[in-house]
Amino acid sequence: MSVIATPTRQSTGGISARTVNRIVIYGLLALFALFYLMPLFVMLVTSFKTMDEIQNGNMLALPQAPTFEPWLKAWGETCVGLTCAGIKGYFWNSIKMVVPAVLISTLLGALNGYVLTKWRFRGHTLVFGLMLFACFIPFQSVLLPMATILGSLGRFGVTLRNATGFSFGLGNPTVNLVFVHVVYGLGFTTLFFRNYYEAFPTELVKAAQVDGASFFQIFRRIMLPNSMPIFVVTVIYQFTNIWNDFLFASAYAGTGDAMPMTVALNNVVNTSTGVVEYNVNMAAAMIAALPTLLVYVVAGRYFVRGLMAGAVKG
Amino acid sequence: MTTVATQIKLTPEHNARPGASVRSRLQDALPKIVLAPSFAITIVFVYGFILWTVYLSFTNSKTFPSYALTGPRAYQRLWRWTFESDPPSSWYTSITNMGIFGFLYIFICLALGLFLAILLDQKIRGEGMLRPIYLYPMALSFIVTGVAWKWFLDPGLGLEQTLHQWGWTSFHFDWIKNKDFVIYTVVIAGVWQASGFIMAMFLAGLRGIDGEIMKAAQIDGATTVQLYRRIVIPLLRPVFLSAFIVLAHLAIKSYDLVVALTSGGPGGSAWLPSNFMYEYTFKRNEMAVGSASAVIMLMTITAIIVPYLYSELRERPR
Question: For the ABC transmembrane type-1 domain, which residue ranges apply (chain A) (predicted)?
Fold first, then answer.
């Protein structure tokens, strides 16, 4: 469906009017491409410059003598608050938080979607509606009660450790964040799988039923092998969201060694003591952005599909 | 809508043998048992917690929660602050910013998204390369976006400095340090991040339009502008609605971008209600006021989302 491009009868100057049209369109598209690329470009080149070059040179200029120093410093030496051991620890914190949170919420979402489409019961729409609305709430409205509960669980964990030697993860900020992200990610994962399974032929499930397959057998043998695309979409969506989260991270692991990457990056950038090392800040920002950018580059198609599925219900 | 589950339940044999009955009843209940934890979690940690927050907003909790109800005092204070514009209260600043940010963010994203989608839909060579370029900011966190734009908009380092070096010495752009304009820098960064995604939504919508309709209109002699104004844009109405919902709830939830880009702005001049809530609850020891502001945010989103979800879920009477 292209309209502007199609030469119409009234354009007697035919070719030239069309060429002008094309030039304008391509020019505008290129201009906007610049607008979207600029910040990333600046961030990238700055991260390879020396401080000297940053202060005296042009922001858009390519580095004269590219150096990896800022990246190494950001990874291993820069100060986050009072600890100066780089951001590597926080990077791993994020990984340790993201992997279990994504896996658990995706698996639960798959089971929920399966029940809500193939084992319907009275009121299934209401149940789904209530879970769906949870996707949209501003998390500020649950922030404080969750903080209170996590606080009590932490105290209980200390008691437990004193009694048994184990705290069972209670009070561990990473475990807390995994829990929080599973809880508030369930709505999305359930939505994704429900919409996907909605289109899955119910006859197959019924046939398996007649053959005596159980609830879990059907899920494992019939649903799961056919769910690859939606698994990829959901995992990518959850990964991006949880990796990029800042609100929960700063509220429940805002200080100390358990900070996730986003909080650590914010601390690095806003540390006002001493000379601000912009190149190191930019390298740190690039490191924080790399995992999600990588996912986007490798599986962009699924990434977009996930965003769409979260926005438009099928 | 007869599901397998209900059929099984109706089979009389199950009640005949007492031993098997427990098992088969368990089988019948299994789907619900599987769903139950997720549902219970949602009820407790979403709806229960919301009620908890509402309750707290009617107490006089300061640093720690207090559970003696003291009436709508927090709301009265917010109400008073709503009109306190000289000097503006933090709440006044927050909701004014929300208005400015919300309107511009949604409007520009929709306009720019639609514009780019229409341009990209003109049989563009290299579309496969341009689309990901427009869209990648959506993969970045608000924190990274904020850091990048903070640098780019800094008068001493970024755009202003660069243009000075190129000879345009009178160029002046210090919005990010100016308390009256800082919120517009949040708009710029926010639009940069989300507009590509809105473009993708519109593009998908455009691709879904039946080519026959367009041809017919062209044969009838419609000009390009007429075609888009009278036919294409009206056909895209559902996309406008979805995009609006996405943008509106993103706008109200925006928190990290303000923190990373402006650290709240000079004197808290870039605050949005989400920042107000966080600061009052966790830093200024005004828990009740913070909770009340969270409730107001929730009600705003509810007013937008619930009618939408209701119509979406009702539409399918399968």
Answer: 91-299
Residue of B62, B141, B160, B301 best to disrupt the A interface, most CBs of A under 10 A: B141
Asked whether the beta carbons of residue B46 and residue A134 sit closer than 8 angstroms, the reply is: yes
Backbone angles phi, psi at B37, to 5 degrees: -60, -45
Q: Exposed, middle or buried by CB within 10 Å (0-12, 13-18, 19+), for B161?
A: middle
Inter-chain touch B143–A266, beta carbons under 8 Å: yes
Q: What is the pTM of this model?
A: 0.86
Peptide bond into B87 cis (omega under 30): yes
- Taking CB atoms and an 8 Å cutoff, what residues of chain A touch B148? 39-40, 42-43, 285
Q: Tell me which amino acid residue A89 is.
A: G
ipTM of the complex: 0.84
Residue A100's contacts (CB-CB under 8 Å, 6 or more residues apart) are A178
List, in order of start, the domains of chain B with CATH numbers. 4-57 (no CATH), 80-314 (1.10.3720.10)
How far lies B173's CA from each of A141, B36, B162, B185, in Å? 37, 55, 11, 11
- Burial class for B87, CB neighbours closer than 10 Å (0-12, 13-18, 19+): exposed
- Rounded CA-CA distance B18/B157 in Å is 80
Identify the CA nearest to A247 among candidates B260, B193, B48, B57. Answer: B260
Give long-range contacts, CB 8 A cutoff, 24+ apart: A96-101. Answer: A96/A174, A97/A174, A97/A177, A97/A178, A97/A181, A97/A242, A97/A260, A98/A239, A98/A242, A98/A243, A100/A178, A101/A177, A101/A178, A101/A181, A101/A182, A101/A185, A101/A238, A101/A242
Q: Phi and psi for B94 in degrees, rounded to 5?
A: -60, -45
Give the C-alpha distances (Å, rounded to integers) separating B16 from A57, A130, A221, B20, B23: 87, 37, 31, 8, 12
Provide the residue-wise pLDDT of chain B in tens; the chain has 318 residues. 334 443 444 444 444 455 567 777 877 788 888 999 999 999 999 999 999 999 999 988 888 888 888 888 888 888 988 888 778 888 888 999 999 999 999 999 999 999 999 999 888 888 888 988 998 998 899 999 998 898 888 887 778 878 888 888 777 787 887 788 889 999 999 999 999 989 988 998 888 888 888 888 888 888 888 888 888 888 888 889 888 988 988 898 889 899 888 888 888 888 999 999 999 888 888 889 999 999 999 999 899 888 888 887 776 554
CB pairs under 8 A between A and B: 279
All structural domains of chain A with their residue ranges: 77-311
Q: How many angstroms away from the CA of A165 is the closest CA of chain B? A: 29
CA neighbours within 13 Å on the CB side: how many for A268?
A: 36
Q: If you count DSSP H runs as helices and E runs as strands, how many of each does chain B have, helices first? A: 17, 0
Closest listed residue to residue B260, CA positions, set A239, A264, A146: A264
- Cβ-defined contact of B35 to A288 (cutoff 8 Å): no
Assigned token pair, A196: 């996907």
- How is residue B85 annotated by DSSP? B
Q: What are the C-alpha distances in Å from B207 to residues A307, B52, B230?
A: 17, 46, 17
Q: How far apart are CA A98 and CA A106, in angstroms?
A: 12
Q: Which residue has the tokens 């709430």?
A: A137
Fold classification of A77-311 is MetI-like fold (1.10.3720)
Determine contact, residues B258/B271, Cβ cutoff 8 Å.
Answer: yes
3-state SS class at B62:
coil
